[in-house]
Specification:
The complex is a heterodimer.
Chain A: H1 2-30, H2 37-52, H3 57-85, H4 90-112, E1 127-130, E2 133-136, H5 137-159, H6 161-171, H7 173-178, H8 183-205, H9 216-230, H10 235-255, H11 261-275
Antiparallel strand pairs in A: 1-2
Chain B: H1 8-23, H2 27-52, H3 60-77, H4 82-104, H5 109-129, H6 131-134, H7 160-182, H8 185-195, H9 197-202, H10 207-233, H11 243-256, H12 261-277, H13 285-299, H14 303-323
Helix pairs in contact in B: 2-7, 2-10, 2-11, 2-12, 3-4, 3-5, 3-10, 4-10, 8-10, 11-12, 11-14, 12-14
The chains are: A mainly alpha, B mainly alpha.
């Protein structure tokens, strides 16, 4: 039973990690604490749901990724770019993203109503057994897709020229600009990737939990917890943070009660911030006076 | 406060507020006006920590809830009086704020916002899951209106008008308190911390002490708002004290203009009153609020009051040039 819970926790954790990657990226590079991330995740899940009724589930996920990326690019062009040009601080970006979150959640309520919906997949009830542990097919799919995505993104950031530009921007935006990196074009891609990752996580989690307009609220806080735990943009750090959170939730469910699973992750968030605000996998930055 | 400091505008405003219930006939509208008063108190509480001290707190609804639950439990189960609960709920919230604030307020900017966001979620879960204390998702019913005061003209509370005047009195006391705070050592220390914490420390301001103090004060005022809320609606449930309300009140402050009492008032009135006027379009309410937040943060970074002040300065400058 414990092993079962731990495995489920691991898979949920990997999924959290994927969702948090998107948040970590735009915070690490553009200092946008994107409160709309949970809403993007929800919107992605809904689009996957709607499209999956017509076509294959995996095609639906692709459509979801593209449309969520599109939403993020639009909100960057309309909102964040203007704030960046005015040297808007993180707090004003945060408030602006709250506005975007409201708009997205209300739109979802208007289009799809507030009732929770099921995202059906053909292999919904298929379960395989390894030793004493049962794994649903869908969870295996989640694990494979999530790990593949994480490796892909890691490769993108560490090995490509584009990734180099991203890392340069994260270190010093001005210096990157001086060296001829087109930071505006980069922002387009970074925001698109961020939205795409959120939608991927939403589409993957849809068949496990119900899809409803406020499904992203708790996930948002968890993503922030992971970003802080993982220390910004390090992809292994973020994935590890996600897994820590998933396992903590699983252990709480096992030993205390399922109702308090979320308490565990929020408690981790608060404690990490108190003990080590730069995260356990990040580097401490000295304060400049 | 000196008497010649009171501008004719505020006097006119107070008179207007006093005769307001006689101008409103519908009980429903009166209810919205009372809700607006409660919201103004709540926004003022956010203003103390976010507007004056510059530390963003997204867990104000948690303190609001602590106030409401304290009074609800004490009055329904232990027969406490409203007047005893009012300060008691505030003090409990302030104590919790001190305990929480002392470790977390060393965090800066966005980190503090996220940390308080996590705390807000934690408190929401406690309200929801601590069934033996809060009755979980069913909430607490049967909260009585404030007890009457027999020795003062035998005052009784229960009608909308009486609620309105009582809550208006609370609001005025809180507004005067925050204004006098601004002119005190403490208020100046808060502003210094908002502008630059390190220079504040260089001027021998104990920044940790003052930040925790501001946080506790904000929690106290939020809990008072919670008591007002619980005794007006006479029913509370966890849904009223969730993250949405915390974000709502912060947005009210930012749109109204942070750091200023008028900003709080304008923000709360805009958010509470105007959407109720368009009740028929209730589904679009949050949509409009969301767009308003985005537009105001892009075009009016200092809020409506900041914009009005700017317009006022430009106008007076123009007037001077014209005279010359």
């Amino acid at each position: 039973m414990l092993l079962q819970q731990l495995l489920n926790g691991l898979i949920t954790g990997v999924l959290y990690g994927i969702a948090a990657l998107g948040l970590g990226f735009i915070y690490g590079i553009y200092f946008v604490p994107n409160m709309a991330h949970g809403a993007i995740f929800m919107f992605g899940a809904y689009i996957v749901l709607v499209v999956a009724l017509k076509v294959n589930y995996f095609c639906a996920i692709l459509v979801g990724i593209v449309s969520a990326a599109f939403i993020m690019v639009i909100s960057d062009a309309l909102v964040f770019k203007k704030l960046r040009k005015r040297l808007g601080d993180a707090t004003s970006m945060m408030i602006a993203s709250i506005g975007i979150e409201y708009v997205l959640i209300t739109l979802a309520e208007l289009i799809w109503t507030a009732d929770p919906r099921d995202l059906p997949v053909p292999w919904q009830s298929n379960v395989t057994q390894i030793g004493k542990v049962f794994i649903a097919y869908h969870r295996i799919i989640i694990l494979v897709v999530a790990i593949f995505t994480a490796i892909l993104i890691h490769y993108l950031v560490q090995r490509t020229k584009f990734g180099k530009a991203m890392r340069a921007c994260a270190q010093d935006m001005l210096a990157a600009k001086i060296l001829g990196i087109n930071t505006e074009r980069l922002s387009l891609i970074v925001f698109a990737i961020s939205g795409g990752l959120a939608a991927l996580a939403g589409g993957l989690i849809g068949p496990i939990i119900m899809v409803y307009p406020t499904m992203g609220n708790n996930l948002l806080t968890k993503c922030f917890a992971i970003v802080i735990l993982g220390g910004g943009m390090s992809i292994p750090g973020l994935m590890a943070g996600g897994i820590v959170l998933g396992l903590a939730e699983a252990l709480t469910t096992q030993y205390i009660s399922g109702q308090y699973a979320d308490v565990a992750s929020f408690l981790i968030l608060v404690l990490v911030l108190i003990i080590r605000p730069s995260g356990f996998f990040g580097k401490t930055k000295p304060v400049k006076v | 406060m000196k008497i010649n400091n009171i501008k004719p505008l505020s006097v006119a405003g107070i008179i207007l507020l006093l005769i307001l219930p006689y101008a409103i006939t519908s009980k429903y509208t009166m209810g919205i006006v009372i809700l607006t008063v409660i919201n103004i108190v709540l926004v003022i509480s956010v203003n103390v920590i976010t507007g004056l001290t510059g530390r963003m707190s997204l867990c104000q609804a948690a303190f609001f809830g602590i106030g409401a639950y304290t009074t609800a439990i004490l009055t329904t189960q232990y027969d406490f009086s409203f007047w005893a609960c009012l300060p008691f709920a505030g003090i409990i919230a302030a104590l919790i704020a001190v305990l929480i604030g002392w470790p977390i307020l060393k965090l800066e900017g966005y980190y503090l916002a996220i940390c308080t966001l996590g705390l807000q979620q934690l408190f929401s879960l406690v309200f929801l899951n601590w069934v033996s204390m809060t009755n979980g998702p069913f909430g607490i019913r049967g909260i009585q209106p404030p007890d009457g005061i027999p020795w003062l003209f035998n005052l009784q509370f229960g009608s909308p008008k009486s609620y309105y005047y009582l809550y208006l009195l609370f609001l005025l006391v809180i507004v005067l308190f925050v204004r006098s705070l601004l002119n005190s050592r403490y208020g100046r220390a808060f502003l210094a911390i908002r502008e630059d914490e390190i220079s504040a420390r260089m001027f021998a301001i104990n920044t940790t002490y003052h930040k925790v103090l501001a946080f506790a004060l904000a929690a106290f005022i939020a809990a008072i708002a919670g008591v007002m809320y619980a005794h007006y609606y006479r029913y509370i449930s966890p849904g009223a004290f969730n993250i949405t309300r915390s974000i709502d009140v912060t947005a009210m402050l930012i749109i109204g203009g942070s750091g200023q009492i008028w900003g709080c008032v304008i923000g709360a009135v805009l958010f509470t009153f105007i959407p109720e006027l368009f009740r028929g379009f209730a589904e679009y309410r949050t949509l409009v609020i969301g767009i308003a937040i985005v537009v105001s943060i892009i075009f009016m970074p200092d809020g409506i009051v900041g914009q009005l002040n700017k317009a006022g300065t430009i106008l007076s400058k123009k007037a001077k040039e014209f005279k010359q």
